[in-house]
Each structure stands twice: as C-alpha cells, then as structure tokens.
Amino acid sequence: TAGGSRRSALFAPGQGLKENARRRLREFDVGDKFSRLPLPRAAVLLPLMVRAGRLHLLLTVRSMQLRRSPGEVCFPGGKSEATDKDDIDTALREAKEEVGLQPEKVEVICRLMPGIDKMNNLVTPVVGFIEDTFQATPNAAEVSEVFVVPLEYFVKPLNYKTLSYKTSSGYLTRIHCFTYDDQEHKRSFRIWGLTAHFAVFLALVIFGETPTFEVDYDLDNLMSSSENNFMNLYASIYERKKSNL
After folding, report:
1. I need a labelling partner for 73 at 20 to 30 A (CA). Which of 26, 63, 138, 177 fits?
2. 50 within some domain
3. Does residue 4 form part of some domain?
4. Do 202 and 57 meet the contact criterion of CB atoms below 8 Å apart?
5. Is residue 234 a part of any domain in this protein?
6. Which CATH number is 112's domain given?
7. In this structure, is residue 8 part of a structural domain?
8. 25 with 206: CB under 8 angstroms?
9. Is the CA virtual torsion 206, 75, 196, 225 positive or negative?
10. Domain residues for 75?
11. What are the pLDDT digits (tens) for 190-214?
C-alpha cells in the first residue's frame, strides 16, 4: 500500500543514520583498555536519538542543590560503585537514577576515549541509542532540566568560543564552550568543559567532518591522536601525583 511504503521510506533514513553511526562508533570502541589506570573511576552516558532525520544528543542540567558544579550542563553519569560490573553498568545505573532511563531501553554501542575531570576521576563516555519518544523523569535532587541538541551543532555551532585552560598539573589544554539556543525551552544552555569535549569527539567520530573551529586532534588519525592527547594528560597528572607522595 502507499501508506506502508511511505512509512518505510520515512523510517529508512533514521535506520541509515543509525547504521552509519554504529559502524563509525565501533571503530573507536576502546573497551576496557584504560580500566587498569590507577585513578578513581566514573562514567557518563552519551544518549543518541534520531529526531526529524537527524542525530540528537540528550543532556541534563545539574540541580542547583548539588555541591559540585550546580546548574552546569552535563551527561547523565557519576562515580563507579562497588556493585557496578564495568563503566557501562555505571553509566546505565546513573542514567536510570538521574532521568528515569531504563537500562534495557538503551542500545549500548561503545565506550570512547576517556577523559579526566577536575577531581582527577577517569571518566569513560558510554555511547548508546535511545528512542526519540523517551520521556525523561528528572530526579530533582540531581537534575533540574533535560534537553536535546542536534549532534552536528558540535562540529558546526552558531555560538562558540574557546578557552585556554591549564590543569592543576600544568598541562595546557583547550576548552570548548558552546551556547545553544533551545527553542523548546526558550532559553540558552552553555555547554563546556569535559561535556563539550565528549560531545565534540562523538560528532567528529560519527560525521568524519572538519569542524568550523580548531581542535587538538589530527583529523586524519583521530583515534591515535586522541589517545596521544589522553596519555599526555594522564602522564601530567600521574607525574604530579608521584611528586606529591
């Protein structure tokens, strides 16, 4: 029937997008390669969905009641607990606690290159697809708002600036800072720091495009240059830790 063919035609672009994204992401899967580094562990979930034929990323705003980074934009996630089997477990448990996302509703694709936060936690980004119909139920003690951003915004932003940042160990790095005007919430969200770092890397992996701003990667060798960057950052922190002992 005409209706049936139209429906499958509508469905196909999303499937194609997902299939392409899955394929690209799996090439960048680090698994548990960095799990033996002697740093406290944390994980975040990067929830991808297809909306109106485009990939979108779900983000949260931290509750103003929180002691650390209140009101900042981040991904669902947090510190590893003894009962978590791995980073994937941590990310899924935290996403359920923070926004009511059931673990079985996430199609986990991969773990990307980790980052190191201000507290020197090793933070692993776990990428998964969720349905675009997902209705978040934010835990008010932890999350004040939930919103989505088109993934391509993190390679072709309308409002972007970069900040230079020196870590406590003296390592100089670039911080991406995006301002996203959300029509649905009628307000702007500021996305920066490690959250922006993960979003940019995710967009670079999936789209394979040169962004409209400078990045600290060799885009022709994204995997190896991202690993070099990470190991340099880790080495600078580890050296400092050793000198403090």
Report:
1. 26
2. yes
3. no
4. yes
5. yes
6. 3.90.79.10
7. no
8. yes
9. negative
10. 14-244
11. 999 999 999 999 999 999 999 999 9
